[in-house]
Amino acid sequence: MIQPAITGSGVFTPQSVITNDELVAAFNAYADKTNAENADAIAVGDTEAIAHSSSDFIVSASGIEQRYVMNKSGVLDPDRMYPDLPPRADDVPSIMAEMAVDAISKALAKAGRGGAEVDLVICAASNLERAYPAVAVEIQSLIGAGGFAFDMNVACSSATFGIQAAADMVRAGSVKCAIVVNPEICSAHLEWRDRDCHFIFGDVATAVVIEPAINANGAHFIIHGTRCATEFSNNIRNNNGFLRRAHDQMEDRRDMQFMQNGRKVFKEVLPMVSGHITGHLKDEGWSADSLTRVWLHQANKTMNDFIGKKVLGRSPEPGEQPNILQDYANTSSAGSIIAFSKHSDDMASGERGVICSFGAGYSVGSVLVERA
Ligand code: COA
Q1: Hey, which residues are catalytic here?
Q2: Does residue 82 line the site of ligand 1, with CB under 6 A?
């Protein structure tokens, strides 16, 4: 069997930032405006007034301080509260493809490869810009890759599931240079008018290059093992699929955007994830003590602190389990890869780590790597 390795990684970060204070000011303006419009219904108890959001709550409940977005003005307009990303003509690159190409070019540069050497592109993300042609095939064309390409969606776990698929093909010898890219426009499936979740997401794209370790041009991470698991749950759900326009009463349904039962997710996903990582380490013959780094999905700081403690049997040391969600918020599948990409160059040969993502499905994926 051929030994696969991650030979490069890259992150595309959008130019616009929204701080918690800016976000809360826009939300509160929207709440005041809506409450004024509904004053009579609120007065007789037919409608509940929308309460104000607060930056302090956001930081203490999630650890998020800001987020990057593809369009700021639409999100912060109290009359809109939705990104303004106009449809593009078919003959110009789609938004996801453009984000993906930026992240891929950084990952390929790190791997010392050119686009023409790529023979597999997996575009793995929690929402796809269109059904077909696959966004991955457009990306394949834009980077001048050969071989084949396809899209996949396992929500927040898309990146690790994509890595498993690509690593398996490298192991089997069917591909020689694979890209797994995760362009996430979470801002377009977040309901910015919902106080309980309006602060959660941001936009980004990440990419990794996966090749036979023997072909690596420089420092790389040997993939010792990949493991994926799923268990059906409705606690994180988005019903905005291709049937949306098949019924004339579906336009304003709240369930067409991101929905979650955050407390239940917390309670049910934590044991699933810590058990998954612990089981994977054990089966691979690795002890938790042998890990130098844990790159977790970036949804909530308290959640990550808890998982780190369960897996390591102690509180993680600073830097051992890097968080990026204070800067990026939850970027769905890309979160653990941003953490990996930005906090792995300093590792010495022989040091080990685990990349782990989790989320809707429920789904959890882990990748055990060793610096070489
Ligand atoms: N500003 C101020 N107060 C707010 C608020 C906001 N934006 N949103 C909620 N609150 C209030 C609530 O009204 C509630 O008040 P009450 O106690 O008076 O009823 C209180 O804060 C607690 O709300 P709750 O929703 O229970 O907060 P929480 O501590 O569970 O944190 C999440 C919310 C979403 C941050 C948290 O549940 C979470 O991160 N869950 C897991 C998320 C996850 O991994 N999802 C996967 C997505 S891919």
Answers
A1: 156
A2: no
